[in-house]
Amino acid sequence: MAAVQNKTEVKHYQIYVDGGWSDAADGVTYDVVDPSSEEVIATVPRAGRADAERAVRAAREAFDHGPWRQTSAVERADLLRMVAEKIRERAEDLARLETRQMGKLFADSLIDMNDAAHTFDYYAGLAVEQHGQTLEVPAASMSMVVREPIGVTAGITPWNFPVLMAAWKLAPSLAAGNVMILKPASVSPLTSLELAKIFDEVGLPKGVVQVITGPGGEVGDYLASSADVDMVAFTGSVEVGKHIMRTGADNVKKVGLELGGKSPNIVFADADFEAAIDGALIGIFAGAGEVCSAGSRLLVERSLYDRFVGELVSRALAIKVGAPLDESSEMGPLVSKQQLETVQSYVEIGLKEGANLVTGGHRIDGGGYFFEPTIFIDVDNDMRIAQEEIFGPVLVVIPFETEAEAIRIANDTIYGLAGAVWTKDVTRALRVVKALRAGITWVNTYHPTYSEAPWGGYKQSGVGRELGTFGLDEYQEVKQINIDLTDEPLGVYQHGKEKPAPGKVVPLSERRPFARAEHAGESWVGSCRNCR
Ligand code: NAP
Ligand code: MG
């Protein structure tokens, strides 16, 4: 692979804790590698338990005793807008760094920076729009609901969308008034540390955001287990998600989990052919398939199957795989050697299972972790390559005869993240979409994602939602406040006073204004109807 890239000096980064920059307590560092050239591009602290403890202490202090709790939503919104502005100002540099550390196309990285900036703007807007409730209750009481921050939150992010996943967690968490410790994936930590610089520059109080780099098994595990962390928001694999849920159970921690999928992309024979072909390719080969919502299972109606597969294969063969900073490239490398080996091993599994490999299946020679766009056809949905998340440019194609069969196959998975339907029949589109057990669905398109719409999965694809108003709810506690309006004792233990018989309704004409219970009724609901 002719990677046309400038040699860069190896830059050293530091972690951001309590408003300051430092190395790991033990001084250990590790290398960050550009997957398209296999060059070391930076070194970062390999933070450990001591650093994680320090980050949690700083966050706890900032939440419990710092000025952040006293900020108004308007002030927090201003800060978030400044973050958005700075991301936009530096979008090209951030995008270049994102691409260098994890291999996605530069154009895609630029889209991520735009989306991340928009996420901060969106939650800046929501921060001031969100409000509580006042409730009509059957008593002389003013009853209301207020929203409050949860406290110390931790964001643990994957390597496929480093800045965007950080934004999806930081923006709603801070908008709601929480503090956050961000632990980016070890292979791609650099842009999260650049984000920390932005938070530092906009003048966030110290301790409100910390970014620490280090192994998930140490730093991430501590964040999930610490009793001083009130919530963990995690995006990554199902295994680690389950582990975080179990670890967090010890102190009944709130967890948000986004765990990937094996999403069905369903093409009916009446679909717009060109659009569906394009959507099938984008569904799996965008981001080299390293996308949790990838349309990795393509279901095609039998009567269209041969024609569709023929065109799909010839188009996949034409995809230009190359250096992700090169504007003419259409697919970049995989993130790491380990991911390359995982993808390679699934190709072998598919061949052993008897699936028909029609294109791709190999690493591309010449350096870098480049892999061919790969398609298996005539796949049985029970095969491992149809059931397990490969997280690479490997598409499995499954034929179906009827709408009912398509729905059955689509839902026959432990996952439920996303799914799409291609058809010109609007009632069929709605029927199928409603039948899909998945949190994100598309009709006649694949992948568009909006900060305004909730993102998350059914079944083992996760717990909770990110983005939208739902995403802000996740970072808030709700508190009910009941204010008695009578200035009188509850009366239950006031011996010698006359008490109406429980259950006896006092006629409206005899009730006092703000009548209240002065009897030992069984229940307060409706009890004021008994009061004089
Ligand atoms: P992963 O192991 O789940 O890692 C995701 C994040 O969790 C990283 O920051 C990781 O840190 C951290 N982590 C790892 N072990 C942890 C632990 N015991 N406690 C707390 N945090 C921990 O995912 P991966 O290794 O990057 O990728 C493996 C597979 O996960 C992929 O092949 C794919 O199937 C899936 N995945 C899904 C998504 C998604 O968007 N849903 C994204 C990425 C990957 P380290 O980086 O230091 O290990
Ligand atoms: Mg891992």
Plain-language structure description:
- With 532 residues, this protein is an alpha/beta fold.
- It is globular and about 90 Å long.
- α6 links the parallel β9 and β10 (209-211).
- The chain has three domains: 49-258 and 468-479, Aldehyde Dehydrogenase, Chain A, domain 1 (3-Layer(aba) Sandwich); 264-448, 3-Layer(aba) Sandwich (Aldehyde Dehydrogenase, Chain A, domain 2), CATH 3.40.309.10; 490-532, no CATH class.
- The N and C termini lie far apart (87 Å).
- Residues 1-5 and 514-532 have low confidence and may be disordered.
- The protein contains 15 helices and 21 strands.
- Strands 15-16-17-14-13-18-19 form a seven-stranded mixed β-sheet, with helices on both faces. Strands 10-9-8-11-12-20 form a six-stranded mixed β-sheet, with helices on both faces. The chain has a three-stranded mixed β-sheet with strand order 1-5-4, covered by helices on one side.
- The chain binds NADP nicotinamide-adenine-dinucleotide phosphate (NAP) and magnesium ion.
- NADP nicotinamide-adenine-dinucleotide phosphate is lined by residues 156-160, 183, 185-186, 215-217, 220-221, 224, 235-237, 240, 243-244, 258-260, 292, 342, 389, 391.
Provide the fold topology.
Blueprint: E1 11-12, E2 15-17, E3 20-22, E4 29-34, E5 39-45, H1 49-65, H2 73-89, H3 91-102, H4 106-129, E6 133-135, E7 141-149, E8 152-156, H5 162-175, E9 179-183, H6 190-201, E10 209-211, H7 216-225, E11 231-235, H8 238-249, E12 254-258, E13 264-267, H9 273-285, E14 297-301, H10 302-317, H11 337-352, E15 356-359, E16 374-377, H12 384-387, E17 394-400, H13 403-411, E18 418-422, H14 426-435, E19 440-443, E20 462-463, H15 468-473, E21 476-484
Helix pairs in contact: 1-7, 2-4, 3-4, 4-5, 9-10
The protein binds NADP nicotinamide-adenine-dinucleotide phosphate and magnesium ion.
NADP nicotinamide-adenine-dinucleotide phosphate (NAP) binds at residues 156-160, 183, 185-186, 215-217, 220-221, 224, 235-237, 240, 243-244, 258-260, 292, 342, 389, 391.
